[in-house]
């Protein structure tokens, strides 16, 4: 799937774009506000047009579109609230149509995540967490994304591994072919010559359990800091939890910056983008015994799963990483490697769909739902990549 144009909306009058794209350039000067900012994400210059000639009139028309666009009533209300907060509308000129799996599109998503904005693309309103609120791409009433694609009957002989298997463990080949069939039964079609292993010596290894647990609890703290109120978790208890468990050491640099913000500011600027971390947390929690296993064919995790994970499975704010490990057993490496391989194949189907191939069931949107595949796979592959930082995890397919 490719885009030719889009627009970005932000609740800020001035955007410190140099802080995101330090090598970018603009036509601004000492006494002149810039009208454009340009940067390159590796596929040619992307120009951001910064000064809308009639922002008030544009937003009034936008509200009219949202009022009649496809989407649930709750989503429409959220869209209207975001439009009401908008202080800047930025047009985007791309050097050529780009894939939704491209570095250029990723850079735009990073920009709206950084400043709690949203994107208008495919005639739909897209949030940093991958949700479409309104428009043709929106799920709409009934939360159709939660309904699994129907099972299809497939011929096992049509889903054999097509790359050479000389010297390969027959059990590994059989597992992969089972994954090809499981995917196809739900309408996911991946390349059938993907490497059977992600390590050079073909041995699956887990990073230490305390690293995995520390990452899980760090994301837990990050979510509570940016997405909940004092009634749910007081700032004092959260700060004590963060210090007690050295949480910042287990976050990326960008994530740690969110914790460094005052809590209210963190909610205002980042609440919309932290939802993706719940998908990482589902996979990490499952590794320590949480059920259900994240199904590859399901989009964003259901509210019921979120509540059970956050409030029933994960510990309270008096906990420690050591205490969590003492009370939870990490699943065997073979179990985690099995699910990682299934998500590895599903991720290939998602990325093929994002470039225009017909490799996903109609119910599964390559951007909105494909992001969940990416995030769960990220957690699984990171766990099987000892010594590799989160941001350096190899997520190629």
Automatic annotation (TrEMBL):
<dbReference type="InterPro" id="IPR025368">
    <property type="entry name" value="DUF4272"/>
</dbReference>
<protein>
    <submittedName>
        <fullName>DUF4272 domain-containing protein</fullName>
    </submittedName>
</protein>
<dbReference type="Pfam" id="PF14094">
    <property type="entry name" value="DUF4272"/>
</dbReference>
């Amino acid at each position: 799937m490719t885009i030719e144009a889009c627009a970005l909306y932000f609740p800020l009058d001035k955007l410190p774009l140099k802080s995101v794209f330090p090598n970018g350039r603009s036509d601004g000067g000492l006494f002149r506000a810039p009208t454009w900012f340009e940067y390159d994400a590796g596929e040619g210059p992307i120009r951001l047009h910064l000064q809308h000639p009639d922002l008030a009139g544009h937003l009034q028309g936008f509200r009219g579109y949202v009022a009649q666009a496809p989407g649930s009533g709750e989503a429409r209300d959220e869209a209207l609230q975001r439009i009401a907060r908008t202080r800047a509308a930025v047009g985007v000129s791309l050097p050529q149509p780009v894939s939704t799996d491209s570095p250029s599109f990723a850079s735009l998503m990073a920009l709206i995540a950084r400043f709690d904005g949203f994107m208008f693309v495919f005639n739909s309103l897209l949030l940093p967490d991958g949700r479409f609120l309104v428009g043709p791409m929106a799920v709409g009433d009934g939360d159709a994304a939660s309904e699994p694609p129907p099972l299809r009957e497939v011929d096992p002989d049509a889903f054999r591994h097509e790359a050479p298997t000389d010297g390969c463990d027959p059990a590994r080949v059989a597992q992969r072919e089972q994954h090809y069939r499981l995917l196809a039964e739900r309408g996911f079609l991946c390349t059938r010559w993907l490497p059977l292993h992600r390590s050079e010596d073909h041995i699956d290894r887990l990073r230490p359990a305390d690293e995995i647990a520390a990452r899980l609890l760090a994301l837990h703290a990050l979510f509570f800091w940016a997405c909940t109120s004092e009634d749910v978790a007081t700032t004092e208890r959260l700060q004590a939890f963060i210090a007690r468990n050295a949480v910042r050491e287990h976050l990326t640099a960008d994530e740690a910056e969110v914790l460094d913000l005052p809590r209210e500011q963190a909610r205002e600027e980042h609440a919309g983008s932290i939802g993706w971390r719940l998908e990482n947390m589902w996979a990490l929690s499952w590794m320590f015994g949480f059920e259900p296993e994240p199904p590859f064919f399901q989009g964003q995790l259901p509210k019921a799963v979120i509540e059970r994970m956050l409030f029933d499975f994960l510990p309270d704010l008096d906990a420690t990483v050591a205490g969590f490990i003492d009370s939870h057993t990490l699943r065997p490496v073979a179990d985690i490697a099995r699910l990682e391989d299934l998500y590895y194949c599903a991720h290939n189907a998602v990325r093929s769909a994002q470039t225009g191939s017909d490799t996903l069931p109609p119910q599964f949107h390559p951007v909105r739902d494909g992001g969940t595949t990416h995030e769960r796979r990220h957690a699984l592959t990171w766990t099987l990549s000892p010594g590799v930082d989160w941001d350096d995890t190899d997520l190629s397919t």
